[in-house]
Each structure stands twice: as structure tokens, then as C-alpha cells.
Design brief:
The chain has helices at residues 16-29, 40-45, 79-91, 103-114, 139-159, 175-184, 198-210, 228-238, 262-280, 300-305, 312-321, and strands at 3-8, 33-37, 49-51, 96-101, 119-123, 163-168, 188-190, 216-221, 247-250, 286-291, 294-299. It is α/β, with parallel strands linked by helices. The longest helix has 21 residues, at 139-159. It is built from eleven helices and eleven strands. α1 (16-29) runs parallel beside α9 (262-280), α5 (139-159) crosses α6 and α6 runs parallel beside α11 (312-321). The chain binds 6-O-phosphono-beta-D-fructofuranose. 6-O-phosphono-beta-D-fructofuranose binds at residues 11, 102, 125-127, 169-171, 222, 256.
């Protein structure tokens, strides 16, 4: 294999740059010419394919986001568009593609492989909802960003006690809410995996109050059956006292940014190197991931068919320790 390309796709996550850097420098170390595709599959369609050098990835590792830019491409869903885009890779002499992204990006990666260009996926998404890997690139940094906010909100919550409802990202997964809840000592976590009602959330607030807790923090996943904003409005009807009512914080895209943690930089580097080695070894349609500390590959179809579940012990732990 003489020439490969790398792209980032879907929602960016901290550590994507470290992965791009690892891919480029590992390829060069193996005598392979690395190319970058800008704006994910959108850039593939528009042939935004640029040669990468060791210098073009210098100093990018410490930055969040992605230097190659990213996009969610609707156009790539069209077969004729895809065929032409992949022909563009061939026209550039590119013999293999590395796709850094999440589940949606891996659907695109599979299509590229079906059209004859060997393709490897690298899991990167703050949601940690990708089958075949214990951790995706960006999750650790995101958890630390959430924790920073939780700790700060706790300062004010402890000074002027009232219920604080914090909405976190995660799409259909409650991973971020649950893990940040455990690490941040939240009184309650609400995730799509449990089916809590507004009344049940309110009774948790009351129970905490009766137990003499000086503050109440709930971490509510954006995909939960009850939305944080609705919980807040509901609680206002229960605690109508001026100034003592509930407060809502939607963390939003702040969770996706920031300098990647050491964990994410190392994970991204290991997976980027593994992806290049897998391509060079003739593999295709697989995702490189990490399980129990060991880097390995999983067929993309298997990864896409697996919906990671949250360990019930973690829910139990979170509840027990919020006593
Ligand atoms: O998948 C990552 C993620 O940040 C989700 O947690 C969130 O639901 C979504 O992307 C937000 O997407 P966008 O940046 O397109 O608004």
C-alpha cells in the first residue's frame, strides 16, 4: 500500500487531532503517503483531498475539534454520489481510507469499502455509544469537562440550597450522565436507559431534602424520557418560593470542546497507529477499538449491530452513594 487517506466525520470530539497526527506519522514511518480529506464525506464528494506531511500535523494534538474539519453528510447517502466520490479517491491513487467518527460515520465507511477501497474505522464520539470498544476518543475529556461544571455548580448550590438540574449530551445514551454523576457525586442521574417520570424525579428531590442533604444536583441526559427543562418547570410548581426554586443548566456544546485529556491523547494515538497497521496488513471493514486495555479490531457490521449497554451495577452504585 503506497497511499492512504484519513477523514473525520460526524460530531467532533477531543482527541480527533491526536488520532490524525498518529495516522499521518505512522503512515510516513511505514513509507506510505498520507492524505487528508477535509469536511468528512462532504469533502470526499467535493474532492477536498490534500497531501499531509509530518509538519502539517505538528502541534495539533493538544487542540480539541478536528483540523481536517467535519460534517454530517446527507449527500453521501445517495449511491451515485458515493460511487463518484470513491472514484475520486482512486483518481488520487488512494488505496485505503481511515474514518475517524461514530456510528453514522461507520455506515459511510462500510459503503466506501463495498466500493472497493479498504476502509478502517476509528471510534470517536463523546457519547460512548459505539459497539466493540470500551471507550471512544473524546469521552474522557468530555467527562472531565462535565465534572468541572458540576463542581462549580455545587459551589453555588451549597451556598444557596435549591435543586439544580444539569442537562448533558449523549444522544440516546446515558453514559455521560451516569459516569459524570458517579464522579461528581450527583444526587440523581436520569438517563434514557431508566424510565423516570417527573413525579419520580420530584420525589427524589423531596427524599434528599428529608435526608438533610444540603444540596441537590441531578444530571439529566438529553435523551432521557423527561427533559431537564420540563423537570425544572415541574419542580417550580412544587417549589414556588421566590429565589428558592430549581435552576436549570444545559451544558451544550461546551462538552465537545477543550484540550484532550492525557487518556484521550494516548487512546487516539494508539488507535490511529493500529488503524494504519490494520490497513497495511490488508484488513478492511473493521473498527479498531480498545477492550480491557487491549487494542484490537471488530468488524464494522458487528460494531454497528451492537448497542452498548450500561452496567446495572453502576446505576446501583450511583444511587447507593447518593444517600
Ligand atoms: O454525537 C455527539 C453529539 O454531541 C451528541 O451528544 C449530541 O446529541 C449531538 O452530537 C449534537 O449534534 P450537533 O453538534 O450536530 O448539534
Amino acid at each position: 500500500m503506497k497511499r492512504i487517506a484519513v477523514l473525520t466525520s460526524g460530531g467532533d470530539s477531543p482527541g480527533m487531532n491526536a488520532c490524525i497526527r498518529a495516522v499521518v506519522r505512522q503512515a510516513l514511518a511505514m513509507g506510505i503517503d498520507p492524505y487528508g480529506v477535509r469536511r468528512g464525506f462532504e469533502g470526499l464528494i467535493d474532492q477536498e483531498i490534500v497531501p499531509m506531511t509530518s509538519r502539517s500535523v505538528g502541534s495539533i494534538m493538544r487542540h480539541g475539534g478536528t483540523a481536517l474539519l467535519t460534517a454530517r453528510s446527507q449527500r453521501f447517502r445517495m449511491p451515485a454520489v458515493r460511487t463518484e466520490a470513491v472514484q475520486g479517491l482512486r483518481d488520487h491513487g488512494i488505496e485505503g481510507l481511515i474514518v475517524i467518527g461514530g456510528n453514522g460515520s461507520f455506515q459511510g465507511a462500510l459503503k466506501v469499502a463495498e466500493l472497493g477501497i479498504p476502509t478502517i474505522g476509528v471510534p470517536a464520539s463523546i457519547d460512548n455509544d459505539i459497539g466493540g470498544t470500551d471507550m471512544a476518543i473524546g469521552v474522557d475529556t468530555c467527562l472531565n469537562t462535565i465534572l468541572d461544571s458540576v463542581d462549580k455548580i455545587k459551589d453555588t448550590a451549597g451556598s444557596s440550597p435549591r435543586p439544580f438540574l444539569i442537562e448533558v449530551m449523549g444522544r440516546h445514551s446515558g453514559y455521560l450522565a451516569l459516569l459524570a454523576g458517579i464522579a461528581g457525586g450527583a444526587e440523581l442521574v436520569v438517563t434514557p436507559e431508566q424510565k423516570m417520570t417527573l413525579e419520580e424525579v420530584a420525589s427524589e428531590v423531596e427524599s434528599a431534602y428529608h435526608r438533610g442533604k444540603p444540596l441537590f444536583i441531578a444530571l439529566i441526559a438529553e435523551g432521557a424520557a423527561v427533559r431537564a427543562a420540563d423537570v425544572c418547570e415541574y419542580l417550580k410548581t412544587r417549589y414556588p418560593v421566590e429565589g428558592a426554586g430549581p435552576r436549570l443548566t444545559i451544558l451544550g456544546h461546551v462538552q465537545r470542546g477543550g484540550s484532550p485529556s492525557a487518556f484521550d491523547r494516548i487512546l487516539a494515538t494508539r488507535l490511529g497507529v493500529a488503524a494504519v497497521k490494520a490497513l497495511a496488513a490488508g484488513e478492511s471493514s473493521v473498527m479498531v477499538g480498545i477492550r480491557s486495555g487491549v487494542v484490537g479490531t471488530t468488524p464494522l457490521v458487528e460494531s454497528l449491530a451492537t448497542c452498548p449497554t450500561l452496567d446495572p451495577d453502576l446505576f446501583e452504585m450511583s444511587r447507593a452513594l447518593a444517600a
